[in-house]
Amino acid sequence: MRAIHHLAVVTGLAGTVLLTGGDVSYYEEALPSTMNPLFAQTMVDFRTHELVFDRLIFHSPVTNELTSRLVEKGPDGKPKAERLADPTKIKLFLKTGIRWHDGKDFSGKDVCFTVNAMLDPKTASQVAKDYREAIVSCEEVSKENAVIITFTKPFHNPLERLGFSVLPSQGFEGTTIRPDMDFSHRPIGTGPMKATLGPKSVRFTAFPNAHQNPKIQVMSMQPGGDSYVQIKTLLNAGVSGVISVPPPLRPEVAASDDVALKSYDLRSWWFVALNTGKGALANDKIRQALNLTIDRSELRELTIGVDAEDPNPPCEFISGPFVGSSPYYNRSIKPSERSDRAKARLLLSEAGATEQVGRWVYKGAPISLKIGMNAPLDLEARDLLNQVGNQLQAGGFDRQVYRVTSDDWNTKVVTGQMKDYDMLIGKWSFGRVEDVSPLFHSRGGGKGALNIFDYSNAEVDTILGRFDNARTDTEAQDAYHDLHAFVSKDLPYLFLWKLDTKSAWRNEVRGSIIAPYYYFTDFEKWRFDE
Amino acid sequence: MVMPRRGLGVLLVALLGAAACGGSSEPAAPPSQVEAPPALPVELLKTSWPVLTADNAVREPYEKEPGWVKLVIKRDYRAAVKQLGGDGGLAGARAHAEAAAMYRQAALLAANSLVSTYADEPKDEDPIGVAHLLTVAYAIRGETDKVREQHLRLKGVDLGDMAAWDAPWSAWLDAGAAWPPDLSALPVALPELAPGEWPAPPTSSNYTLDYNLPPSPDGAKSHGLDVTDPSTLLALSFWHDRVAHLAAADASPVIDTYSARYRLAPEAPVTGKDLPMEFLFGSDMLVPGDGPFFADLFGAKGADAVEAHASTSIIAALASAARVDGKVHPEKATDLAAALRRELIEQQKTIAGGSTQGHHRIFGDIAQVAALRGLAFVAQVEGNKEVSGVLRIQAMERSGEEHTACPTAALSLAAWDANNRYHIRPTESLHNLVRRYPTLEIARFSLDVLALRISLGSSGSIAN
């Protein structure tokens, strides 16, 4: 295998975007699933869109101050926003002279178009959901080049509710926006870079504008493939950056004088979703047996690697749907680190399964599990799919394993259309907000939009309702602690671990501050020194 | 130099181990590649602890003491305090001083979190008792007017179980609020002052505050706010600071100089003293003059300390060289820190006979991170928050190895983030630190309330 790696590096098989002249290139986990920020689903989407679009309000990646490239600065240096007599309304004064990538002028009309598109009930956007809950309307005040945004209630800091990417009104015929529109492939933004999507890569070219002037002229991105090859290519200056460096390869990167490891604040946790509506997995005891059959310590060791001396371990086991550092994480629920086959056997017997020649039989048929994994995860945890399969097989379960392409994951898995699978391995990433309701609430009425196997449990729905209606921060925290406790027993997911993300960029790329979640927020300050 | 006599070559073993991991020796580079950039204070570097300890005879006493390994290579202050024990001398004093600084920054993290939560984004339903938390928080931040303002809110309020926690603060205010407050009356049992001890008070919640809410329609009372009072963190910092002074005996004044970077706002300015080797080895202080520089930087001189100390302090010299239009420039600072590492490795190699050892790289790493942290402080004093933040983050990104993973620096960044109402990086950082220092769990309450308020007050997305 290593020989193949070396051959790939030597022959340049690592990729087609190898550096030439002053170009910057980087390896991503996959291609973006869309270039329309309203339909962003993957972290690749959010990162890519940050280069092409401007969010109306964003947080400085260094000082966390609320700021904007589209709104004028007030005398205090903050976005010029005026609270109106009606405490639900705020007036924002926009900058002038900003052009869209198609040359047209940006104005308040575009801001209000974006708001109206998000509010349009026919725009099926998960991204828009939060904004719908906060915003009522938008009114353009063209004489002042301003907009008045009305919120559902007076918010302490309404600017926190305006973190959406602004879309061009001229790019659409109406406010009903669909993911299959041409715009999803040919985006028009006001961001620092104009993007051109190819079949295997995305090419970005600088778009100097009145409000920002990027210093990197050309940049390209492509899916990275084998992680080892990615890192070798980076170290050999064949590429400028790698978005995600798996833990086993980090020491090699850290030892290089030419490349710097960069922290990327992202709350990601990994899971195996269980199809609670199908076959043997409808039985909670069998799900619990699977949870005890999986040996997380061994999985981590085989797929990610462990450094017992690491003061900040990149991978930490979890027992519920939050990272361990989150205030929502219920620390009284301990994760199962090792397998417990004896207990698993007992649970299977209690469920009515019988062991026949090393295989578990339930209701007259061997328990056979169809297991899928979001394919790009293999880059961070090599061979995880097979290792999970092997452990289950060793535990007496038949299994078939499949890699699910990014496209299928984004269009079918998260929309609940892959229910022929029994188990699906994936990860979720969160930024400032950790709202897990879309993952566990019963589907319907706009809820449960990311409920992979249409898990439905009245008690879970009640707990999520308690979270939504919490009168205090403590009530919200209690609700999620209860959710954690409940799902750790009912097991719609087998919770695996949180895995932090680290990037690596060559030292020629200067000023590369990585923004939490959105990554390229401060791209205007990035520079390439040959 | 007074060195405790225990342990056998533990540091050497650790360093050799690190050398093996780091790729052992390297061939000498051609002279043209090793010339230091002119901005580096090359002569001053020759007096730095990494270069001085490149001489085996100088390094030997440290190699023989296991406590130094815990302190410098592992950054494990608790283990170092215990290992160095009651007769640890200046080394023991250093370990307690490090612990005091760590708890100072933990207290500041809690204070900034509480202010960012209950003062910057108050809610009608917040318990009236948060006025006590804000009293403590503003006291830690040295904002005396606000301390009194918050404490007045408690007048006539039934404090319940919180009363015992508020009493020392109430007495302090009544006595004129001269720093430090006497926290001995807190309901926390700390041992008698003794070098080698490591107090570990309980970390569970101390009392519960009722929310300002009517009962819900079904008559149920809302779950109150279970508080872990941050006063304990301050009490721990006082305890370790006093023990550090006790252990340092005649050399006691260097404790304050060494801690100057991480002292709290209400603490009196420090008169700087040159630091002895026990307070340099493995630390962010590279030469004796770095201590007085930081004392003046955070004292009356402020940013003028840079030029005043540029001939005796490496950090001041780097700050001077990194300035553009009178202020530290982030890219120049970054380049200088990287050049410092290279130059120190070269100077160590020369002394060691021409081959780079693993510990040369370790010491170079420590120095590079020290420079970034130091220049971040300078930028902060210059009033350049953005640059200070950039350099703090860069230092953090280079602190992934045990020898650079200083818990005090991590907590200092966390406190800075909390003051900026940013919760993701500090919650992760504190979560990691709690594994090694369980008492830091006390700070988790304050940071959690901030994280909850931010999370519940923002819009965001989930991605796969």
Beta content of chain A: 15-25%
Average pLDDT of chain A works out at 93
How many E-type strands of chain A? 24
Order of strands, widest sheet of chain A: 8-9-10-1-11-22-12
Number of strands of chain B: 5
Span between termini of chain B: 58 Å
Beta fraction of chain B:
under 5%
Written overview of the protein:
Chain A is an alpha+beta fold. In chain A, 25% of the residues lie in helices and 21% in strands. Chain A has helices at residues 2-11, 43-52, 108-119, 126-134, 227-235, 250-254, 284-293, 296-303, 341-350, 384-394, 406-413, 437-440, 458-468, 473-490, and strands spanning 24-28, 58-59, 66-67, 81-83, 89-93, 135-141, 146-151, 193-197, 202-206, 218-223, 241-242, 259-264, 267-274, 315-317, 354-356, 359-362, 365-366, 368-374, 398-404, 423-430, 493-499, 501-506, 509-510, 527-528. A seven-stranded mixed sheet of chain A has the order 8-9-10-1-11-22-12, sandwiched between helices. A six-stranded mixed sheet of chain A has the order 14-21-13-20-18-19. In chain A, strand 8 (193-197) and strand 9 form a beta hairpin. In chain B, strands 1-2 form a two-stranded antiparallel ribbon. In chain B, strands 3-4 form a two-stranded antiparallel ribbon. Chain B contains 22 helices and five strands. In chain B, 59% of the residues are buried. Chain B has helices at 10-22, 31-34, 42-45, 49-52, 56-63, 66-73, 77-84, 89-119, 130-141, 144-152, 163-174, 231-248, 253-259, 290-297, 305-309, 314-322, 330-351, 358-381, 385-397, 407-419, 424-436, 441-456, and strands spanning 207-209, 225-227, 323-324, 327-328, 462-463. In chain B, a hairpin with a 2-residue loop joins strand 3 and strand 4. With 464 residues, chain B is an all-alpha fold. Chain B is globular and about 80 Å long. Residues 1-36 of chain B have low confidence and may be disordered. The interface between A and B is large, with 76 and 59 residues. Strand 20 of chain A pairs antiparallel with strand 5 of chain B, so a sheet runs across the interface.
